[in-house]
Protein 1
Amino acid sequence: MELTFSGAAIQILESTGFSAIVPGQVVMLIVACVLLYLAIWKKFEPLLLLPIGFGCLMANLPMSMMMSTDDGGLLNFFYQGIKHEILPPLIFLGVGALTDFGPLLANPTTLLLGAAAQIGVYTTLIGAVLLGFDLKEASAIGIIGGADGPTSIFLASKLAPHLLAPIAVAAYSYMSLVPLIQPPIMRWLTTHSERKIKMAQLKPISKKVKIIFPILVTIICCLMLPAVTPLLGMLMLGNLFRESGVTARLHETSETHLINIVTIFLALAVGSSMTAESFLKLETIKIIILGLLAFCMATAGGVLFGKLMCKLTGGKVNPLIGSAGVSAVPMAARVSQKVGAEEDHTNFLLMHAMGPNVAGVIGSAVAAGVFLSLFGDPTVPGPEAHAAIEAVVQSMVQR
Amino acid sequence: MNDDIITSFTVSGIAISVIFLVLTILIFTIKILVRLLPYEEPPPKPARKAQPTAPSDMDEDIAVITSVMASHLSQTPGNFQVVNIQSR
C-alpha cells in the first residue's frame, strides 16, 4: 500500500472526531460543561451531576462509542444496569441502609404527609397530558414530583426510555435546588404562628419494632403493588441490614462502597443517554418546566396537608414538616428545620421532618408502583395478574 | 387528547387513593406494632468495680524493671519512665 504524505495527513484528519462532529453534539458538549460547572463550582448535587455531565461529555464525542445505544461500548454496558432495572434498586439498598425510620415509627401519622406530597406527581401528570405527552410519558414525567432520582430513572426506563435523559437531569437538578424552591412556597402558605409551633419530643422506639418494620412494609406494600418490589424490597433490605445488628459488614458496604459504586455506574449511564437526538427537543424544555411544577406542587401539597393536620390535632403539628414529604432525603428535612429556625431559633424541627421525609421515599415508590401496575408492560411476569391490569387499561383507553 | 385528559384525572384520583390507602394501612400496622412491642429502658449497666491495686507491688515491679532497663541501655534511670505494667 502506497501512502503519500498528503494522503496520510488526510487519512489521519478524517479519523479524528473533529471531522465527524455535528452541531448537535457541540451543543451537547456545552450542556455537559454547564452540568460540570453546576456540579463543581455551584455544588448542585455534585455526586450525581458531575458523573452525569462527564457521561454526557463522553457520549457526545464522535466515534468514541460511548453513547448508551452504542452496542459494545463501555457505557452501553453500564446502561444495561438501567435497562434491566439493576442500578436504581441497588441505590435503594444503600438508601435503606442509610435511613433511620425511627422518627417515622415514633410519629406514624407523618406517613400521610409523604402521601400528600405525591400530589405534585399527579398534577404534573395532568399537566404533561395537557402538553401533549401520552399517559406513559406523562407518568414518567410526573414522578419527578416524587423528588427521588432512582425512582424517576426506574420508572422512566420502563415507561418512557426515550425520555430518560431529560427526566433524570430534571429530577436531580431540581433536587439540588430544593433549598431555593421550597422556602418561598412554605412561607407563602403558612402563617407566622404556624411556623413557630413547637412539636412534642418523639418517643423512643424499641429495637424489635425497627427490625420488624422493614419486613412488614415489604410484605404489605409488595403484596398490594407487586411492581414496586424491586425498589421497596431493596430499600427495606438495606434497612434490615442496618437494624438487625447481625450484618454489620453488609450494612457498612451498602451504605458506603456499594452505593458509591452504583452511583458512578448509574450517573454515567444516564449521562451516556444524553445524546443530541434524545435531548435537543422541545420535549426537554417541556419536561424541565413540568419538573419545576412537580416540585412546587409537591411542596405545596405537603405543606397544605400539614396545615390540615395542624388544625385536626389542635396545633400540635408544625405545617412546615409537610414540605419534607417530597422525599429528597435529607435535604428537604433540613429546609423544614431552616425555615422553622428562621422564625424561632429554639424550634428544632429536623427530627420531626425526617418522618415525612422518609415517608416520601416510600410514598414515591408506591406512586411508581401504581403507575407500573396501570401502564407497565403486562407481558413480563405473572400473566394472570397482569392480564387483569391490561383489561382495566384497555377499558380505560377504549373509553 | 380529551380522552387522555379525562383518563389522567381518573388515574390521578385512583393513584392518590391507593397511596393514601397503602400508607394508612402502614400507619395502623406501625401503631399496633409499637403497642405490642413498647420501648423498654435498657437495664442500667452494672457499675464497674474498681480493680484492686497493690501499689506497693506495682512500685516494686516498676523499680526493678527501670533498673534493668537502665542497665541494659547504659542510661541513668532518670532518662526514661516506666508508666504501666500489664500482666499477660
Protein 2
Amino acid sequence: MEIDPFIFRLSIFILSIFVGYYVVWSVTPSLHTPLMSVTNAISSVIIVGAIIAALATTAEEGLSSSSIFGYLAIILAAVNIFGGFLVTQRMLQMYKKKKDKKK
Amino acid sequence: MISPNLSAIFYLISGILFILALRGLSSPDTSRQGNYFGIAGMTIAIIVTFLSIGNFSSLFLYVLILLILGGTLGAFIAFKIPMTAMPELVAGFHSLVGLAAVFVAIAAFLNPEVFNLGITGNIKLASLIEMSIGAAVGAITFSGSIIAFLKLRGIMSGAPITFSGQHYLNLILGLGIFVMVFYLCKTQSENIFWTLIAVSFVIGILLIIPIGGADMPVVISMLNSYSGWAAAGIGFTLENTALIITGALVGSSGAILSYIMCKAMNRSFFSVILGGFGADNSSNDSNEKKDQKPVKSGNAEDAAFLMKNASSVIIVPGYGMAVAQAQHALREMVDKLKKNDIKVTYAIHPVAGRMPGHMNVLLAEANVPYDEVFELEDINNDFANSDVAFVIGANDVTNPVAKTDPKSPIFGMPVLDVEKCKSVLFVKRSLSPGYAGIDNELFYRDNTLMLFADAKKMTEDIVKNLD
C-alpha cells in the first residue's frame, strides 16, 4: 500500500517543530524582540497561498469572490513581510559591541 | 512555468533559509546576516509561486501593484515606529498574519479547484479539516492581537476585564468549534464555515480581555505561536513545504517564549491565560499600611552624590523607563559615571517591559553596548558586591517578598536581588504598588532611597548634578 503524501508533510511538520525548538532555545534572550518580529515576517510566507488564489482567474473572467480574498491577503501579508523584515533590520543595527563604539 | 517538483524543492530551500534566519539570532554578530537569509527565503518563495502559476496576464500586474502598495506601507511603519512602541507593533503585525490566514482559507474554501482540493461542495475531508484549523486559529490570532494591540497602545485599559461564567463561555465556544468542524465536514455547508470564523473571532477577543497589562509578554508570545500554527494549517491545505516548515518554526518559537515568560513569573501558562491577575482588591489594605511605614526619599542631588562615590553601579530598567522614554537620558548618566571610572552594568529581568527582550531593544536604541547588559541569572550574584542599584521603572521584579512571603501572589517568582546592594536608588512616580497589586518591601528598607519623579526627568536632573 502506498503512503499517503499527507504523512510526508506531517513528518516535515514534526521535524520542523523539533528544529524550531532547538534553534529558538539557542537564541540569546537579548534578541527576543527581534525574534518575534522576524518570526512574524516569515510567517507571512502565507502570501504564497494568497497569490495562488488571486491569480486563479484569467483576465477575461475578471474577479471571483475567491480571488478578491486572495488580493486582500496579499496586501496584508505584504505589509507584514516588508514591515517585519525592515523593523528587524532596524533593531539589529542597534545591537553593537563596546569596541564598535565611537572613540 | 516550472514543474511542481522543482517548485517543491525551492519551497524547501526557502524553508531552510528561514531556519537559518532564526539560527542567526543566537548572537547579535550573526543576527543581521540571519535577517538577510530570511529575506532571501521570502523572495525565493514569492518568485517560485509566480513561476509555478505562470499567469503573467494583467492580473499579475495587479498582484505586483498590491505587493508594492502593502510593502510601502509596511516599510513606512517599520521606519517610523518608535522603539518604545515595539510591543504594539508586533501585536499589530500578528493580527495581519492571522487575518491573512483567514482570507487564504476562505479563498481555498470558495475555490478549491485552484488548490487541487476537490470541487466546491465536495472538498477533500483532510483539506477541509486543515483549512478549518487554519481559519479558526487565524481568526483567534487576529481578534486576540487586536485586543492586545489596543491594550498595549493604551486605547483600552490594561486592567483585566472579567465577568462571571467567562471561562464556561470560552469552554462552550471552544467545544462549539469542534462541533462545527465536524458538521462542516459532513455537510460542506458554507454557512457553517462563516459561523466557524465568526465564533473564532469572538473567542480571540474573550481570550485576551481578562489578561492584564503586565502579562502581555506571555500574550504576545502566545499570539506569535498561534500565528505560526495558523500558517502551518494553511500550509497543509496548500500542500506547501515552505509554509509547513515556517508554521512549525514560528509556532514552537512562540511557545518557547511563552514558556520562558511564564517561568520568569513563576506562573503556570493556564493561570496567565485564565487571567484576572492583578485585579484583586487587597491593594486597599496595603495602602493603609503604607502610611505607617517610614520611607526615605531623596532628590537628584543625593542620588548623584551616592553614585559618584560608588565604584560599581547596576541599573535595573523596567516598563516605567519605556513609558517615560528615559533610555537616552539613562545612557547619558551612565557615560558620566563611566568617566569617573565607575563600573556600570545593566540587569534585565525576563519579564521587564511588555514583551520578551523589550528592555534590551530600548537600551540598544540608546547605544548601550550589548555586552554591558546582563540577564537575571548572570548578574544576580553581583548585587551583593555592588555599591548602588539604580532601579528605574521596575517594581515587582525587585520585590524581596517573592523570596520571603509564601502568601504573596508573586512568591517563588525569580527576582533581582537589588536589596543586597549597599544602597538602592528607586526612581518611581509614587509609592503605588506595582502591577501585581502588592507593596514592595524594598521601599521601606534603610538602604533604599526613593526618588519620586518621572524617570526621564529624574535621570536628566541626576546628569546635571553629576557635573
